[in-house]
């Protein structure tokens, strides 16, 4: 009875539709529901196999292991940074693709780790014990997490990563243990113009014609890693209505936010983010128009900015949708009523919703200084980012693990160090642009008269200060390594201008971060956690947790949708690609494709859509058929899927996938990569 | 009794404060209230004198006539376009100022008209008779307006402009007759760095140190115009608490919008406008960073974009302010209740509020095509704008006056023609940037698959199409004149690529404009008018109409304010300017100022603030003392004044003014302009 009551409540609370909704953890997958709807049995063996063949990219992407020799399938846009960092003015792999003739020519991806989830352990009780009655909740929680992570990976952190994952907004804490590969090499990348054909205009749209795939290979001890538990590569077309599964790492969703939190996003954070992205987008567009070299070095950042803009714009539209907000109000009223009806639960929850309203009232005074002095400081300047890592890291690592900023705990230090030591190009022209942008916006948002502006800019203009900071030598990995290894003493003696700048301003950045955590994050996390525990007590694990860049499985079917009365078919084919090409960017095609036009099968499905519930971070995810074979790589959602941050609307939310069939066809007929085809298919 | 009841209702409806609120028409100024509060008698003579000495700039600025020889005081930012158009790569008057040694060196301001209001006549009955029962309300209204304007200026439209001004959102229509001067020459402009010291960071801020003034002279028959009714130039400092008056042309306010309309602005129009402005701002910033010449040619547009961004951002913050929205809800409920209580009024008003809610629901589907294909088409490209004027104007002028698009009625044709015939530079690099921006955003907002994108772009990219359009010869005024005079036949035979582009796309632009007028503007205007008539019936002219770029008078006092608990003083002085200067843009000073530092009086008030209720369009307005003498030129509002679009909050809303005392001091001691000083002061 109780169970049924809970289920009914969820149906009410999560309207309009439960169909295919959910990014489920592998230890709580709703196999019974899937069996009932699709007739497919997802048993423990199936789940274990798929978990073993799924991998997470450090930077926030997903992938499949697709050969016994460590070959990994992901999206082109997930390896784009690696492609760009290996390019030079004379060898532009973004434009021309990267197609090594043999394995020995594969190239290191600086800073990239690939991680395969091996184990999930519940540590909720340990965290709750450590935070019970703590005055500083965030500190107590982070200290407990740091200790658990350190213990779990002790003596094996060269090959493993231990990470506590917060689920149900603090309703559960689980220790995820990953097998980690840090020698990751680029194995294949097509030309950007086929991977991202249609560019920004087509991004998040469908019908679509993108061969958005790239391949890397995992290495161990300088040799291709052995990966016998890889997934099987299918070359069959997907079928309409076929049940499909997506295994990947959705980055973050906000489906459990309260109405007050959603309104704060809608009114404060989201408009400011869109404005910020739009202006730097304009700067980078014009910068790119200046010369082919500027276009090359800015492309990666511009792509990220445009992608982020379009995604946030879609989310913003959902936040403005009265139907979405109404459904949230209904769900919130339902949960509040249930909590009120239970005296014990009511006492434990207190006025958590009211506390979140108070947080949102406090937000406007703290948000901007926090963003411009701390969260967005440096605005993607590599030199600034190196300097901050060095200044903060050397100071933090001298403290006990539990006292550190969370990004410098023992379990994170290997990643920080890898990022500092790996060589990668720094582009001074681009550095100048982003530094000037950051400093100008800092002054604009904080005003010229603020203490923050006076400290960071002094009597300089953004341009003159940026010029001085660009004399930094931190582009050289040897210089970074020496400072890192020399520790605090070496850093304090350094006369590098960027190091000195960070040394002079870091106390102010840390102070505003502390204020933000005390006034915003801390109270919000504590109130969210109370609501999460209440929700957990009422609904249990019949619902799924918000996405947290950890492994999830979603189910669905191959299916088009109805866009304002017009049906959108589920599939596209190669001939449609050539019809859409105008010869002008971004609807131009690489020469190889124009020559191969007549050789390509007209029947192979190129891209397709499914009802799976995914979100950013799922890029590159294996899309699997009922047998668990890879039939494609998810690379996008439709425009309507962007609202997926806040709710799932199964009538229009669609995942966009490139087929392994099309990739195989292209590898054979466009690229002549028989070596790779053989490795993937055995043929 | 009835009168008192109405006054009480307004006090309730327009909370929080009536103090100093209002942009009053000269024929309905609340002299009694001013007398009661400030002890100053504003009689008909005072009003007539000030009206005669106040002038409107065609482009949307205000000014004072300050000498018997047609000398006009306005802001530097009101003559900036003229300064820029007269500059060349070798004579940069924006940077160095424009300081002719004698009158004969004054330079024509292309496209500028200056207009002095001479007469106001009520034409409400004529318009109401013409629109009563009309099926197409906008068409009927515009035809009646065109006829009235044509009649009124018949035979004298070389020297007069007749314009029907809509007041109280259609509650009143008045015919304004202006004496018009079309030969307007630049007489003096200081260096931009003193006019706009502190640049965008200080814009809308206070304390402030801007000598934001410029001077033009009106000419008639090639000689300086005689203006015996000029205002008197004061060189006295303003005093704290002194009553002051601002006479100028506030452009537009939205204080009578309904809650539904305000929410539409907040959720749809405003975020999209901020995003659009931010991106082109970024483009222009980077374009300007490319070379000094690019900086020079883009400066005017960038200034406008930044100014507009900051203004809209401030307005957006007010739209998000729960207190503002609550006051609007209260006012709306009050009016609705009063309408409901009166059967006749209720029948006449119908469900006008509900109709506006329906308009807002329809807006999302129409707004973007309307904006990108019609309202923002060309995005400030001069070539596009010329082509559209020629193509549309030659077609429209063949129709009866009442059937034309409103910008081509007989009363408007002289302005259209002046804009086409006046020579001014066209900058191809900048043209390319704005055309590419427009076409890219058109495609992005309408999607690549839309009919609009296919028609405007065809198989071109924004870049390739812009390159083709730039072959246009319309930069040459002789070419424009020939086409204009050749009429429709010449236009249709033209092979100018921009003309051909507009010919090919204009039907689609006109169609979406028609749709927008039928679905949005028409129903909204009709419903607004019903509410306006109801409001008028209830409250009468005890309240003031929304701003409409027509002459208004506001009253107030010299007074600082309290910013988040910190008092902001009302005055700044020259020494503060030198303290604030860092030597780095935008806090750098012109060399002349650095040399003159010790000569300048430390006691002369530089800038000051007042409680007057003004808005954009008031730039350059005479600020007058009780005697009606000019003591300054309004050039800005504080950040808090931006919410003035929607309400007036007297506790923080402030007008920012540069004193005539400081201008006189600078003309003497920085610029050695004894000739001008003598003309202004007689000494």
From TrEMBL, chains A, B:
Could you list this entry's UniProt keywords, alphabetically sorted: Aminopeptidase, Hydrolase, Protease, Serine protease, Signal
Q: Which Pfam families match?
A: Peptidase_S46
Against Gene3D superfamilies, the record matches this protein to:
Trypsin-like serine proteases (2.40.10.10)
- Explain the purpose of this protein: Catalyzes the removal of dipeptides from the N-terminus of oligopeptides.
Question: What name does this protein carry?
Answer: Dipeptidyl-peptidase
Q: Which family does it belong to?
A: Belongs to the peptidase S46 family.
EC assignment: the record states 3.4.14.-
Specify the signal sequence span. 1-19
Which source organism does the UniProt entry give? Rhizomicrobium electricum
Q: Which InterPro entries match?
A: Pep_S46, Peptidase_S1_PA, Peptidase_S1_PA_chymotrypsin
